[in-house]
Amino acid sequence: MIGALPLAAIPPEDEALRPEIRAFLRETVADIPPERRARSWMGFDPEFSRGLAARGWLGLTFPREYGGAGRGPFARYVLVEELLAAGAPVSAHWIADRQSGPLIQRFGTEAQRRFYLPRICRAEAFFCIGMSEPNTGSDLASVATRAVRDGDGWRLNGAKIWTTNAQHSHYMIALVRTSGTAADRHGGLSQILVDLHAPGVRIGPIRDLAGDAHFSEVVFEDVLLPADALIGEEGSGWAQVNAELAFERSGPERVLSSAVLLDEWARWLRKASEAGNASEAAEALLGRLLAHLAVLRAMSVAVTGRLVAGESPVVEAALVKDLGTEFEQLIPVVVADILARPGPTPPGPLMRTLAYTAAMAPSFSLRGGTREILRGMIARGMGLR
Ligand SMILES: Cc1cc2nc3c(=O)[nH]c(=O)nc-3n(C[C@H](O)[C@H](O)[C@H](O)COP(=O)(O)OP(=O)(O)OC[C@H]3O[C@@H](n4cnc5c(N)ncnc54)[C@H](O)[C@@H]3O)c2cc1C
């Protein structure tokens, strides 16, 4: 596979976005305590999302006729990189902007595009993803939630779990069975858009290891949906979901989940150095981590280059996510180890940022597909399976 991922560079017109974004973040995010900024793409703040929308930074890649900015994936890359590096609370609009909007753009009807995309760009429609179920996670083809024809529309029954932001969102795009049985695997699956305020939808938030309740279990009991709830072709849900997962696996979010911790630690090392307490061992470790980050970023940019070229780099995206999440999980381990050594007492905000990041780190390699599943895809890409 060597040579399969030619390096790419971000075009100057997209790099040119950076100073304006940084100025906005200095005003809106810099004063938020680091332990809150560490939540980043799990940090829910509709007001912040509306601020981005007012600057035209939501739906950056959507066509202008649907309220977007008509920019390419590299412009969005620059925006997302800056937002995550600063620890901006992007979670409210995150899934709609990254995943649901592009899915509707690609597979939706013209009426669906005209209805949903402008609302996403104005931060008025927040989405969540209903793939996992109480008995279905990695083996997504065995989903049992079922939508059956009911008059002109659909009747939905079943349950989804670990649904990020379901309790705050307006809509879910759910992978459901519209024909056959779980034994039919990929056949008979469709994607359906659920208004989460419809009668029969019950949402129960679930608390995670860090104490936050950012995901939920969602139960559907005889939920009646209109005919136009179907996204794309009936029975094409499997192919559509796989296209959607490619949007999800290779962006800066797979490299920068521990960025706020890394930054706070670097700030503390700088202060210690200025006070004459420099630690060569700690500085060498920071340098090693930054070298890893530079390589991972180059890979992530390269995958974006292939998306720009209209390719579908599924295996390469899996590589970035696998290596990226390993790096993100290493950072709290390294920082905890160094801070446990004898030396000056680290500041409270750094310790609280470490505590949060360490508690969340196990989830980095679960969300969006587990490490084992990604490695299976990589092995297949190498012709080993
Ligand atoms: C923070 C967070 C947010 C999430 N948000 C969402 C969301 O918004 N929407 C959504 O639909 N889901 C969401 N998920 C769920 C996530 O996608 C699943 O947890 C994940 O796909 C794994 O499924 P599972 O939990 O059922 O584990 P299982 O599939 O039961 O896996 C258990 C273990 O077995 C391993 N395993 C399973 N199958 C194989 C295999 N074939 N070969 C080797 N090993 C295997 C897995 O790697 C894992 O280690 C979220 C999860 C987290 C942690």
Characterise the protein shown here:
The chain has 385 residues and is of the alpha+beta class. It has helices spanning 12-15, 18-28, 34-37, 46-54, 73-86, 91-107, 110-121, 237-248, 259-274, 280-308, 314-339, 348-364, 371-381, and strands at residues 127-130, 146-150, 153-164, 171-177, 189-195, 201-206, 215-225, 230-231. The strands form two sheets. A four-stranded mixed β-sheet has the order 1-4-5-8, with helices on one face. It has a four-stranded antiparallel β-sheet with strand order 2-3-7-6, with no helix packed on it. A hairpin with an 8-residue loop joins strand 6 (201-206) and strand 7 (215-225). It binds flavin-adenine dinucleotide. Flavin-adenine dinucleotide binds next to strand 1, strand 3 and helix 13. Flavin-adenine dinucleotide is lined by residues 128-132, 137-138, 162-164, 215, 363, 366-367, 369-370, 372-373, 376.
